[in-house]
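Checked the freezer inventory, then went back to the computational side. Two predictions to log before the end of the day. The first one is the construct we discussed on Monday; recording sequence and tokens without edits.
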Amino acid sequence: MQADATSVIVVGGGTAGWMTAALLAKILGARAHVTLVESEAIGIVGVGEATIPPICAVNAMLGIDEGAFLRATGATIKLGIRFDGWGRPSDSYDHSFGGAGRDLPFCGFHHFCTRAAMEGLPANYWDHDFNALCIQAGRFAPDAETAPNPVWPLPHAYHFDAGLYGHFLRGIAEGLGVRRIEGRVVDISRAPETGDVTALHLEDGRSLEGALFIDCSGSRGLLIEQFLQTGYEDWSHWLPCDRALAVPSAREAVSPLYTRATARAAGWQWRIPLQHRNGNGLVYSSAYIDDDAAADTLMAGLTTAAQDAPRLLRFRTGRARRQWHHNVVAIGLSSGFLEPLESTSIYLIQSAIVRLLHLFPHDGRPDPQRAEYNRQSAIEYERIRDFVILHYHAQHRPEPFWTERRAAALPDRLDEKIALFASTGTIVQDPFDIFTEASWVKVLLGQGITPAAYHPLAGGFSRDALARQFEQMAMVKRQGVARLPLHDAWLSATMARTAA
């Protein structure tokens, strides 16, 4: 280790720990000496198996071959999330990645859809959404094959086995020089003058000294909460679901290109299709349904045969009050928990690592960086929180759980955004909001919020010209879909090509 290298110790493995270790080692190189300590005796929560498109940037940065990744993690392609029964019990819509139609400067495509609907023209927003059309057709090819035509962008993410992904990342991290230590952390030493952590003490008597400690210990928050007692900001008054049951089942005969989120009487059920199985689960509020009834609901809603008994997980929605406290940075579930409705769990790991790399304390004086890290992290968590709350608020389901969610007070910024869209169709992109204007539009429309007016620029075409534009655009999108291979065929060909 060179003299000016920073000693970084990551506590905990899994996706959070090994992604952190791999990216720090890859980006910082000789400027950091990275050690990861984990215990095989401590289980890993592996329910975060669905991702969003920024995961592709992580894989690219680490030089991961896509075919090798697909084989190692049992991955399938994800083009969005299908929400069944959320606005009303009979409703269904896709929150697909990417936008629909084509925006004009200062005027999003959804404004033209609003005008068309007001004038009686057939203008379903999703008929002009390439990702949504590919989901329906079960077809996929990567951006490189669709990008030459600007109406065919196809942003994608993955469904994968989180345990297998963590193991895959471990191999990459160790190849980059990360040292792994098997052991259980039972105590720490702190500098009396600053309160910073100076060393970790393991159950077998060994000690590990470091300058920066990354807490990837999961919901235990071993360093950030148990030892540093940083405090937790509880958001359960907005998002009262506090439990989940998870169970694997047999794989689908045809691999869907979407994560499925189905509203249930006291929460919602997920289905995540992998090559070798489905990941399934039920997120619910224990105030409205007991664990046995929740298990019955989950098992009755499976689309394939269960392969195990349901496993119970307890959680409390919220975040650590300071996600970087003293010289400890919490990443993953130790930093907070937001239910995986929009598949943001692994993204929040990635985002935290990127933020830390931007603000890394190379000079050993982290106060300004720490304050900015905490500011950005808090805003990002709040923006995702608000987006999740939107699903629970904008609905017309009859069950007591849902009627209470509909009537509950909203965070101020979310209330303002809903009112702005409902009145004029306007979306304002806030700083550190990972959800694009198109994402907000799809969920707002999908949950049944229809704008009362459209932007004046959408009135610049005659009614006949508008109808022709919609018809032509839908036709071009459908032609693009027909060019693509079926999803399972593409998976097989890609894995076979890279295995050769």
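The second is the one RB wanted added to the comparison set:
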Amino acid sequence: MLASENNNQKAANSTTREDAITIRGLRKSYDGIEVLKGVDLTAKQGDIIAIIGGSGSGKSTLLRCINLLEIPSAGEVAIDGEIIKMKNTSEGIKPADKKQVKRIRSKLAMVFQNFNLWQHLTLIENLIAAPTIVHGIDKNSATASARKLLERVGLSDKEQSYPAFLSGGQQQRVAIARAVAVQPSVMLFDEPTSALDPELVGEVLKVIEDLAHEGRTMILVTHEMQFAREVANHVVFLHQGVIEEEGPPEQIFNQPKSERLKQFISSVR
């Protein structure tokens, strides 16, 4: 199935799928400066949402608020229909239930710009750490699954290597495999190719595209416009902390309504 056909089928079936992520009125401020100014967004199960926008528009902050690497200043985030509980304290807003946060985070996996692999662990050790320590999976089972994932991303011959001996593209492929190893409900990608040399971008995008074809729910912050056009079924244009425009890729890239979006698309072509 072509990517565009797959996207159209997902859009047609959107009413029959449960919500994977629901964001309502999300705000985030740093030292009085509001970075997110009331974002509403829904990702249904199997959606692939690409978030695009200029530097400083709040894209990465939005992702970090979803998995609570950053605590929202206001608004709600729900994962699989479960709203993350917050409370007001003397130090500001905090999660109200640590057990809930741990449970919800176990459903999410994030791939960062700069890989964030554990440099003192081999590749196989990187992949089995979270499944065994956090999720309590038997080491033998975790290792067998990790080897399959390394084979899938083309690195089965490097399982005993350390990250420092890999190229940037190889490290990012390992980071993606490590994210998949915890079998998340939702995968978050924060500009996964931005730290790579141009010749290494394609190998990473291919791995992400393969995952997308499995029906995984994904939210990707990306500056790869062609990739967003071909892989995502919904595109969000974030500008100065608000969603300026959103819709299917054909609409966003071929018939943008917002003047700011038109200018942005022209600038990145």
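For RB: The longest strand covers residues 19-30. Residues 198-212 form the longest helix (15 residues). Let me know if you want it refolded.
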